[in-house]
Amino acid sequence: MPMNNLEKTEASFNYRNPLNKGEPKPAFGLKEEDASMPDHTPHMKSIQNARLREFSIETSGFELLNHKSAVKDFFNDSEVTEIYYPEMTKLVKERIQADEVHIVSHISRNEAEVESGKRKGAHRLVHNDFTPNFKSTLEPLLEETKSKPSKILVFNLWRRFDKDGIDAPFALCDARTVSEKELIPTDLHNYLEGQEDSLTVEIYQSSFSEKHQWNYYPKMNRDEVLMFKTYDSTLNPFMPTLHSAFDDNSFGDKKVSPRKSLEVRAICFFN
Questions:
Q1: Domains in the chain and their CATH numbers?
Q2: Residue 73 near residue 238, CB atoms below 8 Å
């Protein structure tokens, strides 16, 4: 049976341990992280093949879009900002009918270049990029654009472009299966590291929940974009689209190409 048609697989996810009474707010980015991840515990979870089901941004918080990019080299920052940013702006506007879309950052990853330190690799940690506090982080952008939106949404647009789309796939948790009780606000320092406007943002980590339903799109290719919501100013409480990379062992010892991926963040204003 083709791997795209497998109903599900199973893998381990790194969840944050619940905070103990009096334990300080977690933080990343102030020091080199302990690779053993002592504050996290791996939990095995079933991961459904999302290609066999219907998901949407409005229901589950994510969906897969078809899009052929004119970018030749996704590791070329100039190409990404000059060609890809406008492409993603158009794609997002068409999908959600936003009045303004601002692509604010991108991260390219390559599993083959992690050891050398040249690029980041897949992020194997259950999290969401932002919390409801992200609105305060947006104040400079609102002032710069003189925007007074009635609604703000933020999306991550994730694309992989390695040869076979197998290594370190990307999993998303159906937002309808997430609750406030497992969400752990965490400070992420040096967000946009290496850029002039590096700052601190608050993200969500998550403790384990049996109710979490994980999904993935097997063997994604460079003409597919995974769009998922990371912030919504209209929802109270806001249930995020938790996500994480995972190691898919269903391919056994088969040699696969290292994962290469690109993600951009789109801030969307509605008048």
A1: 43-270 (2.60.120)
A2: no
